[in-house]
Amino acid sequence: MNDSPKRCGFDVSPIGYVQKGQELSHLCINAEYRDGLKELEGFSHALVLWWSGGCGKRPPKPALTFRPPFEAPPLGVFSSRSPGRPNPISISTVRLLHVDHETGRVGISAIDAYDKTPILDLKPYIPHYDRVRSPQVPRWARGWPRWLPDEGVEADEIPAAGTHT
User: Fold this and answer.
1) Which of 62, 70, 126, 164 could cross-link to 145 by cystine, CB 3.0-4.6 Å?
2) Residues 6+ apart with CB under 8 A from 152
């Protein structure tokens, strides 16, 4: 038996899926995980971990470097939020609007995932853990907004520079 961390594999199953709407989107949590929503409504925001590879087979191995669709030097995938990753796991911060424990529907303002995207995990946003006082970013990212817009970010949306005033 090979216990090398390089060779271990993982079985990951979704806890639900994203349901996109015109004005409102939902995280639809599967019945067997709904007890995990207890007390989530006390938080204003949450972190959603989702599978950006869709359902089914693992996507082909992505390039580890690429030219981004904005003004920046070529980037390594680990220096970006690109969905093309060795493990297509993405994370989004969302604003929570309501939690329906019975149906498992969690109303959110926006998420940069597509409709029916599998959700891997859901965690409350806790500033003590999820925020740093003085983060540093490379020069090419310094004109980006300083925080997430109140309305959230949709899929394929790149926040405009200078929107943090």
Assistant:
1) 164
2) 94, 95, 108, 109, 110, 111, 112
For the chain, which domains are there?
A: 18-91+115-127+136-156 (2.40.30.70)
Go through 62-72 and write b for each residue having 16 or more CB atoms within 10 A of its CB, e for each that does not. Answer: eeeeeeeeeee
- pTM higher than 0.85: no
CB-hemisphere CA count at 13 Å for 104? 16
Residue 45 CB: number of other CB atoms within 10 A? Answer: 17
SS3 107: strand
Query: What CA–CA distance (Å, rounded) separates 111 from 88?
Result: 16
